[in-house]
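Hey,

Quick one before I head out. I ran the complex with nicotinamide-adenine-dinucleotide overnight. Inputs first:
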Amino acid sequence: MAKTAIITGSARGIGAAIALRLAKDGFNIALNDVSEKSFENNDIMEKITALGVRCEKYIADVSSHEACESFVKKVREDFGSIDVLVNNAGITRDGLLLRMAEENYDDVIRINQKSVFNMTKFVGAVMLRQKSGRIVNLASVAGLYGNPGQMNYSASKGAVIAMTKTAAKELGSRGINVNAVAPGFIKTPMTDKLTDEQRDAMLAQIAMKRYGEPEEVASVVAFLCSDDAAYVTGQTIEISGGLSM
Ligand code: NAD
């Protein structure tokens, strides 16, 4: 029987690339995004179903505990099992510390960090019963090293790395692996918002002197979801073209 993967925030960007890659690897796919609008003018479902796997989309705000509970329940009913969870949904609300509005801090923590608690709790319960599962969290180099203008974002991603380790320790004995990836600068709608100055500053620090592609994040996530990574847990793999060494 085909395995099922949930990828949060998968209408576009890195999440869509991960969904497509896991579909190529034979997983049935549960797509998710915050609104129906996210899927407008978007052919991700068609691309996935063309690969011969099952694909459904679920509209849910993953920062809501209640919404995640019903979302996970529905996926379980629709697909029977949940074998992979990729906590990918995330936002930025950048600004220097002294000018950062409180709501921009709270929104980023709620969406990037609390969503990981919500989804891991409800999917973790399903995986515990199955005695197997893979969870991959999208952290960031900002969570490892900090980044000016991202007090909120780096706090949320640093927390995601700590949550990855805690979940790995709690769930490891039941056959559930939990890992994180920490991308650097990847070309997506999220980084389109950066100024040329910010891009140039980032590029100067990258050993490979180029930005990453969403597919290059997806291939590492696919490895962590594969049998080849059966003895890897609690780890954070940096995917940054050598941003920091
Ligand atoms: P993106 O903005 O292109 O896509 C994020 C998706 O998440 C969007 O479709 C958005 O609608 C969705 N989303 C936002 N809030 C949501 C919510 N509450 N519930 C459900 N879905 C929601 O971003 P991306 O660049 O593809 O980033 C994906 C992940 O990778 C994020 O966690 C991001 O922090 C992380 N990341 C990205 C980069 C990069 O350079 N692009 C670097 C490091 C980490």
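The longest helix spans residues 102-130.

Talk tomorrow,
K.
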